[in-house]
Amino acid sequence: MNDQNHKTKSSASELGLIWSQYMNDSLSSCVLKYFIKNVEDEEICDVLRYALELAEAHLEKVRYFLTQENYPIPKGFSDKDVNVNAPALFTDTYKLVYIQIMAIHGLTRYAAAVSSSLREDYINYFIDCTNETAKLYASSSNVLLQKGIVSKPPTLNNQQKVDFVTDQSFLTGFLGERRPLNAVEISGTYLNMQKTMVKMVLELGFGQVAKSKKVREYMERGRQVCQKHFDRLTTKVKKDNLHIPRTFETEVTDSTVAPFSDKLMLFHITALLSSAIGYYGEALALCQRRDLAAAYIRMITEIGLLAEDGMNLLIENGWFEQPPIATDHEGLAKSD
């Protein structure tokens, strides 16, 4: 039997991927429209406009995919969730740093999406998304470096040679003398510090403007947890006389006018916290020093509990939109 002309239905994985992308890009569209409205630096504005162009194009494509599947378009986030005329809550500097880190998130998601898809149109689409987001990352990184906003990760200036580990003390870290962090460990730690800093600044700003007392308290709690994680990783890095990423708390203005709905701000932070579990897990998998591995295990537990509480708060307020779900056959069998 020839199935060449048979259009296969989207798999649950593919449906979940495009549904999630709609949620994330509808949020990004709101954030970017507001950022563009009050940005002053032209070079940074160009990067923001390109990011918005990508988000809007992705939303249009996802609507097409969902319509083809006769699946309803999610509510996601809309103009009701953003006040573009609100005063600037963040400086241009932070906006650019934010875009670079969000591009990293996008690259991670799209790479995973390619490997979770089977249909050719989905695979090609996510490859295109990966290429576009790589361009966004490159352009934002270039402007960040040109303006001297971010510092490069540490450089190893000592003499290197090809060698093999012959002593299990290479893995130690709890007691006794600890070896310096290796390049693989530094890479994961530095990236997680950068991502944690961006999240802390968002929590600081959102906590300043959120209308709900519970949301404000959650933002402050999240900021404190993230600060603790940043400090914990800072201790590991500074022990080897390596520099840490620049911090950006001073890039939050004194505005108290909310540019976004509490729903959007809470969803954004909860999603970033959930993503952090994956980034911590990846760094953990590459750790070869026990004390650093133990730190990541502890941080995963702490941030997992924080993310869960954020989800509960979303549900409590009726703000959590349910993803596509499998058929409840047992429930149907029990219905009258």
Features:
336 residues, Ferritin, 2 domains, globular, Transcriptional regulator, Ferritin-like, DUF3231
Topology, pairings included?
Elements: H1 12-38, H2 42-68, H3 92-115, H4 120-146, H5 183-209, H6 213-239, H7 262-285, H8 290-316, H9 329-334
Helix pairs in contact: 1-2, 2-3, 2-4, 3-4, 5-6, 5-7, 6-8, 7-8
Question: How would you sum up this structure, described in words?
Answer:
This protein is mostly helical and 336 residues long. The chain folds into two domains: 12-146, Ferritin, core subunit, four-helix bundle (Ferritin), CATH 1.20.1260.10; 178-316, Ferritin, CATH 1.20.1260.10. Helices cover 64% and strands 0% of the residues. The protein contains nine helices and no strands. The chain has helices spanning 12-38, 42-68, 92-115, 120-146, 183-209, 213-239, 262-285, 290-316, 329-334. Helix 3 (92-115) runs antiparallel to helix 4. Residues 1-6 have low confidence and may be disordered. This is Transcriptional regulator.
Low-confidence stretches: 1-6
Oligomer: single chain
What is the name of the CATH topology of the largest domain? Ferritin
Describe the global form.
globular
The H/E string reads HHHHHHHHH
Query: Helix count, per DSSP?
Result: 9
Total count of strands:
0
- What fraction of residues sit in β-strands? under 5%
What is the percent of helical residues?
Answer: 55-70%
CATH architecture of the largest domain: Up-down Bundle
CATH superfamily of the largest domain: Ferritin, core subunit, four-helix bundle
Q: State the domain count.
A: 2
How far the N terminus sits from the C terminus, by CA atoms, comes to 41 Å
* Mean of pLDDT: 90
Q: Given this structure, which CATH class of the largest domain is correct?
A: Mainly Alpha
Question: Which structural category fits the helices and strands?
Answer: mainly alpha
Largest sheet: none
Organism: Metabacillus niabensis
Protein name: Transcriptional regulator
InterPro entries: DUF3231, Ferritin-like
